[in-house]
Amino acid sequence: MDGALDAARSASFVAGLMEGASHGLSLLMDELAYGVLLVSAKGQILHANQTARHELARRQVVSVHDGHLQAHDATQSKSLMQALAKAETGRRSLIALRSPTRKRLSIAVVPLRSDRAHHAASIALIFSRASVCDAVMLCFFARTHGLTPSEEQVLAILCQGYSAPEVARQLEVAVSTIRSHVRSMCAKTHCNGVRALIGQVAVLPPIGAAHLQAPLH
What we know:
By secondary structure, this protein is α+β, with helices and mostly antiparallel strands. About 50% of the residues lie in helices and about 15% in strands. The strands form 2 sheets. Strands 2-1-7-6-5 form a 5-stranded antiparallel β-sheet. A two-stranded antiparallel ribbon has the order 3-4.
């Protein structure tokens, strides 16, 4: 009798852990700078983290129609569905979608196996980041290394792929001023150039800004 009671308590405890882990994982996913969707093989959206919800609400590259994911046009939606069909057979793929304004969104399509016999496997769609580094982590990086607000501003623009002269034009300052900021940042971060500096930023943890809860349409 005691053995059966202990087994029941153990099962209840494990179930509680699983429920807590599931909730904790959902909260963690909302902190990521990458948009993450869980969908069925037919494109039905099962779960979306905050970054994904933000991207869907923008309706530029991908959107929601009757609870299903769709791309901007029929051709791209066909590519998306083909990738989901591959995932249903256990194959991963990478697709690149575009908006009419040439905004690009790369999506990794990853099949997820279900451990439950009667539950269909879901598919994870992982969106590319909008920039090398989210503003939150860039701010943390700047504070950690003692960068000035002006240096942080210059670094943010450099991380968007602009050259020093282009940054100077955007900020309406001399190129020599930008290069002075770059030398200072490299000294503070122990980097030997802009490429190494941006490389440090690019490998920061992918933690994003807390986007407002955006409704799906």
